[in-house]
Design brief:
Number of helices: 15
Number of domains: 2
CATH class of the largest domain: Alpha Beta
Radius of gyration: 21 Å
CATH architecture of the largest domain: 3-Layer(aba) Sandwich
Order of helices and strands: HEEEHHHEHEHEHEHEHEEHHHHEEHEEEH
């Protein structure tokens, strides 16, 4: 068998296990409708939770940014890629979160992959929730620190691991809102353990920023938490509707990250047209609470129509208070069958399978947004009711 044959064999195995992914070409977007393959699909697949990616004010801000700075930043932030727009965005994020300082990265994935190895290294220890996002996992591996994985939200195990650790630097890393389950981490208890054991706590608030807390300030604000031991990471490609990521917290830590995070130092900065769009998004996130209220209403509407407890015979909803509403199916092939049924009826709801989720927990991940109407949610409910899998 040649090397090429071995890769072909791997691809064939993915197909047999119902794990092969398909990339679809989006031809146009109009609100909650996405045109793909010549069809207009009602989309429950994206993370544009507040519906800001197509907001006229955000688009206009991006156009003004392009007219002033062009469509590229030309260099990394530490060369000449950090514009006045980037600086303003960082100041506005820090003010919005009421934290001393913020640092903006070109992508959310790059944020965690960069900041974790900058905070801990050989001889240090990092403590990770078992369901953390891939970017936290990869950042932990790149750090070369000792990695301790605790069962999902298992505070007792985490406490024991921290007590037994003799590492000079300890970092607890956890999603704040878990991207595939939609549940919220026990952030107050995590912070309490971090302070008790003189550790840092890094929360990945990709799916909480803009959605949770007063004015959409995220999971830390949701729990009214403040501590120099707390670092808040978030992405700006979801509720903020554009692109990039940030980390915010103690000014000394942020300065260190600016000096040491390789994915910040060695990557070209995002174009200023993106940061201008994000500045407009921040204003809308803070001022338009009705968007968060609409998401909560949609979630209640969906949950009232779907079973929310574990059943061996039918799919069920996980208990999620966020826009992420996972319908657990179990087997990979069954999840694909349910997705195909909804696709046939004009709805795009993605099937999520291992390794993104644990084996035997394949699911449909319903993403609810403020751009959806009650009628959109009712169409989803009615279509699911007609599915033979259900």
């Amino acid at each position: 068998m040649t090397v090429l044959d071995s890769y072909k064999h791997e691809l064939a195995n993915l197909d047999v296990a119902s794990l092969k992914r398909t990339r679809r070409i989006v031809e146009g977007v109009n609100g909650t409708r996405i045109r793909v393959g010549g069809r207009d699909m009602l989309a429950f697949c994206g993370n544009d939770y507040l519906g800001l990616s197509q907001h006229p004010e955000v688009i206009e801000a991006s156009l003004r940014g392009a007219q002033r700075w062009g469509v590229g930043s030309t260099a990394s932030p530490l060369v000449c890629g950090h514009s006045a727009s980037h600086e303003a965005l960082e100041l506005e994020i820090a003010k919005f979160l009421d934290l001393p300082r913020a640092l903006y990265f070109h992508a959310g994935y790059a944020t965690n992959v960069g900041i974790v190895p900058a905070l801990v290294g050989r001889g240090d220890a990092i403590f990770c929730d078992a369901l953390n996002h891939a970017c936290l996992i990869d950042g932990a591996r790149l750090s070369r620190a000792e990695i301790k994985v605790y069962p999902h939200a298992d505070l007792a195990t985490l406490s024991q691991q921290l007590t037994e650790s003799t590492a000079p630097r300890k970092l607890i890393a956890s999603d704040a809102v878990f991207s595939m389950d939609g549940d919220i981490a026990p952030v107050p208890e995590l912070l309490q353990l971090a302070e008790q054991h003189k550790a840092l706590l890094l929360i990945d608030d990709a799916h909480g920023f803009g959605v949770l807390g007063p004015g959409g300030r995220g999971s830390a604000a949701h729990f009214d938490l403040r501590s120099p031991n707390l670092l808040v990471m978030g992405t700006l490609s979801k509720a903020a509707g554009s692109a990039g990521g940030f980390v915010a917290g103690d000014a000394t830590l942020i300065e260190l990250l600016m000096q040491r995070a390789r994915s910040y130092i060695f990557a070209t900065a995002a174009p200023a047209m993106v940061t201008e769009a994000l500045r407009a998004s921040l204003r809308l996130i803070e001022s338009e609470d009705w968007r968060r209220e609409r998401i909560r209403s949609h979630a209640q509407r969906l949950r009232a129509a779907m079973p929310a407890s574990n059943s061996a015979s039918r799919p069920y909803l996980l208990p999620s208070p966020t826009p992420i509403q996972p319908i657990i199916v179990g087997e990979n092939a069954a999840a694909l069958e349910l997705m195909a049924h909804l696709w046939y009826e004009g709805l795009w709801v993605p099937a999520i399978r291992p390794p993104t989720v644990p084996q035997g927990t394949a699911r449909l991940r319903v993403s609810l947004t403020a751009a959806h109407s009650d009628a959109d949610v009712d169409v989803l409910i009615a279509s699911m009711a007609r599915c033979p899998v259900l």
